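Quality-control log, excerpt.
Job 1 of 2 completed; input and output follow.
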Amino acid sequence: MSDTTLVAAFLGLIEGLTEFIPVSSTGHLLLSSHFLNYESAGHTFEVVIQFGAVLAILTVYSARLLGLVRDVPHSPGARRFLMSILLAFAPAVVIGVLAHGFIKSVLFETPILIAVMLILGGIVLLFIDKCAPEPRYEDPTHLPMGVAFKIGLIQCLAMIPGTSRSGATIVGALALGVGKRAAAEFSFFLSMPTMAGAFGYDLWKNRDVLDLSAVGDIAIGFVMAFISAVLVVRWLLNYVSRNGYALFGWWRIIVGTVALALLSMGF
């Protein structure tokens, strides 16, 4: 097995393990690629393996998604939940399209910014885990439209790498009175259109520079991302229901601090 194949497997594992927990999969992936000196043309590898995580959440939630599709024509509650997800997704569409070039060419190429955002996000997560208001919403399918839209606005902060999409949505939801388990679950549902949209748009924008020559490495990264993401999604809800989010806050601070130290030494 070649060195690049091992790196591809490792990066796929990182993507899957971190995509749905509030630690920033993009930040972990970009920093890991930087320190391992791994780069693919047009970020083909990073774009494609992200779809492994998208497929994982669709697989785990397939029964609920099929039930939602079945219920939408005759259930006002199902239609309302679907609308709340689409409403929360809308801000990311607008800002993502308008700022795509700046995000990919500037923010994604600034490892120091990523490390700093990991630390700041960890501090915020620790604070909100301890000081969140008393939950008013324990069912992610019954969030008011206004609350869903505000979570969607907060999600846009995750376009700064190192912030974390799931971290932004979970922190926003907790601050708005959503329970810890419900916050994670709403983040899961919101991730489906957000990640699928980002994947499709990235693929389209990079269509002229995509490098599919390393198909084997891409396939290994994709499979690793899929398997590890499935395991994380199945584990996370029960964990945060019992323990909250402090573990992830401390992890972010440690990783960001180590990254800053390595960067300061010229790595």
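Job 2 of 2 completed; input and output follow.
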Amino acid sequence: MADLRGGIDLGGTKIQTVVVDAAGTVLGEARRPTPTSGGPADVARELAEALREAAAAAGAKLEDLVGVGVGSPGDADGHTGVVSKARNLPGWEGSFPLGETLAEALGTKVRIGNDVQVAVEGEFRLGAGEEFDSLLGVWWGTGVGGGIVLDGKPWLGRGAAGEIGHVVVKRGGARCPCGRRSCMEAYAGRAAMEAEARRQHEDGQETDLFKLMHKHGKPRLTSGIWERAIDHGDDLAKELIERAIEALGTGVASACNVLDVEAVILGGGLGQRFGDRYREPLAAEMAKHLFVDDRPPALRVAELGDLGGAIGASLLVSR
């Protein structure tokens, strides 16, 4: 089997893997939960096992792969394969040679990239961004990440471009999981939203969020739990989602004022779940802050779905 590539999307809650052909068609895939304890080496072992499962589903062997791409959170150095400060993962405060470790485990070359950037490039080449030459990807999930394509090429800056979740949306505002205050992620990241929901619930605010979480056997407030709560008329869930939309609109518009991109692609767990539902409210919040408000960027929801990050990661191999 020729020209097969592996792709791994390492997220805060799940590991998604695919094996694709030269055209990007998924031939096999597998998913595992991201470890919640241990450290980087434990995560790397799960990545390798998940890719083995995807290869088996594709009827292939690891030695059939020309390479594997990995989209990782944190500071992912594409040149060295080292991932640092992936704080959404267990015990990953420092640096870890993820590329080298996986290459040894899998017996093939491994390329590392930022998780959101590679997902955005997947949408640019194969999904919702195909018709555009420039775009900003906003991945709304456990955190809020971003990716940038300018003039048909990924823009990485000095390695950390696209961290839109950490633009300031309110001076002196809420504490972000990154440790700073006032970041967009402090209001719109799923983890921060859950923390705020718990705080208000403990202070006496009524909500069914946590009842629904336990009823459906979830360890955290997933995008599906947020949706169920809103559909049930839960006031706190609605309030926190609207608060997130306001923060997203403010931060995304500010980035668009600097970059003047043709399109904004909304992805991630919450983005996929709520993108169509809240497209108009998000566009309205953006319009409040866009300098050229009569010519807003197109606002699209990512099309590649749950496999988008892994498909995008597989494209790293062709570089």
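Post-run check on job 2. Residues 235-259 form the longest helix (25 residues).
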